[in-house]
Amino acid sequence: MNNFLSKIKSRKILVFPYVFWILGFTVVPLILIVIYGLTDKNGVLTFENITSMGTYEHMKALILSLLLSLISTLICLLLAYPLALILKKRGAGAGRFIVFIFVLPMWMNFLLRTLAWQTLLEKNGIINGILSLFTLPGIAVINTNYAIILGMVYNFLPFMVLPIYNVLVKIDDNVVNAARDLGASRRQTFFHILLPLSIPGIVSGITMVFVPALTTFVISNILGGAKILLIGNVIEQEFTRGSGWHLGAGLSLVMMVFIFISMALIAKYDSQEGRTF
Amino acid sequence: MGRTLIDLIHIEKSFDGEMVIDDLNLSIPENAFLTLLGPSGCGKTTTLRIIGGFERADKGKVVFDGEDISDVPPNKRNLNTVFQKYALFPHMNIAENIAFGLKIKNKSKAYIDDKVKYALKLVNLDGYENRDVDSLSGGQQQRIAIARAIVNEPKVLLLDEPLGALDLKLRQDMQYELIRLKNELGITFIYVTHDQEEALTMSDTIVVMNQGYIQQMGTPEQIYNEPNCAFVADFIGESNIIPAVMVKDELVEIFGARFACVDRGFGNNKPVDAVIRPEDIDLVEPEKGTLVGRVTHVIFKGVHYEMEVTTPDGYEWLVHSTDLSPVGKEVGITVDPFDIQIMNKPVSEDEEAIGVNE
ABC transporter domain spans which residues (chain B) (predicted)? Predict the structure, then answer.
């Protein structure tokens, strides 16, 4: 009996690092953000930090963020789906190799990758240098919304490909064959069978791209210059430049609503995935 | 048997340089229940997939109803397939699954509803329209897969080991059900299985395949009673394949003893293989036997005893009988002339590989 008890105790001890980790680095910071977000400098309860999201300046940044991340997510989806389909068709061996190649850049530091794009896109950067060699007009992409979208798509594309690929490979080839057998053209098979069956993957892909794209400030800092403010930049500046921790926390709380909506969507389709497969 | 419905002409197919089907020629008559039978890797499923259009033959033609359909995609072929492991659409309910083919063909809603109802009745699952695929057992899913195929009124139904995933009892029930369906629908069934008993029970024509070749084609009785090579003899049921010498027409010498048989035309004093089914061997008193041996092994199998009788030359005869001869007993062996099947010894290396000379 004693032995049994000590066993349980020793097992319980194993949990402490995780509990400590979650408490120290997730729960406590979250509580701090809520406290900061709902108080002013004097520690008095206020909703001003939250409602300030409605001001023209913040609203503009938020709408731009939503717009750019939506466009990036859409582009990622349009690029990722055909790629995932090709990977599925390739079969296990070749498919896995292509996935590996695809994931390879993700092992490089996110900041480095983005800085590399900056060097490529700069006014006197590598791309324009090559273009001028052929006496072609240079492109002025750096410090525009297009550059930010490019950065988002480049950095987040793998997060769209992998979930869609994972869902697609699970679909039995004979299910596709059965649709063809029953008279469906390739097009009809895609819209009636493959697409509906891959919705769970598409949804998790969208959330995995949309959420980080919505809150990024690094990509817009590096590829957008200091000119374009996304909501991520606004919050970052409140924390780093000013002493607006309270305002920054308040805006973060608003952003969390968007993240919760995404999580809810994932949860909904995850449970459906369990049902369909 | 009716006229030819499907003709496979000089079909060849290889995967990654490995020959799976080698110059296969096969005529499938209308209204047949034809079974492609063979061990895994013999090319039977590939043959079916070539007929269904999911695989393209490297060489050769598929002729359907007088028309070359080698390049016709599966959705334009007037045949339907019941896949291994059912392959139902998991995001649709039962009615939607069955209706899929008809919806693609833009049939009216009333027609579709009628057809779905009829198909469910045919497979004994009335009232299952709104059930989820997941809520059905394997056997029920298989019936839905069949219903989904036959509502399209195909001329031919292709079945790829449809009962492979079911347990024994259910499999036997489904065998009878498939025979009933076949008779009710009056269409051609092409059936793929590795289960020889299934093939014997259901088919009117069996095509035994091995290593991409057709070994033998015939009625179940022909395949079982008159196997034309050691492979077929061994694959279909159990058999004793014994080296023998054909002394002259209707007389064969096995281990020095002469047996009367019914085969002719092998020549005189020619080495051959004799095939004798275990249930065709009669154990008698030693002095009445053509050969004498001793029982060395007995297993009770339920319906019969399986006995091993060793003759002085060391050969172990497999014998099935409802009468027990205990281990150690000396017995005589006799065989009725028509129960001995004579085969030529394999000549080429290829045939040697195919044949089973254990």
Answer: 6-236
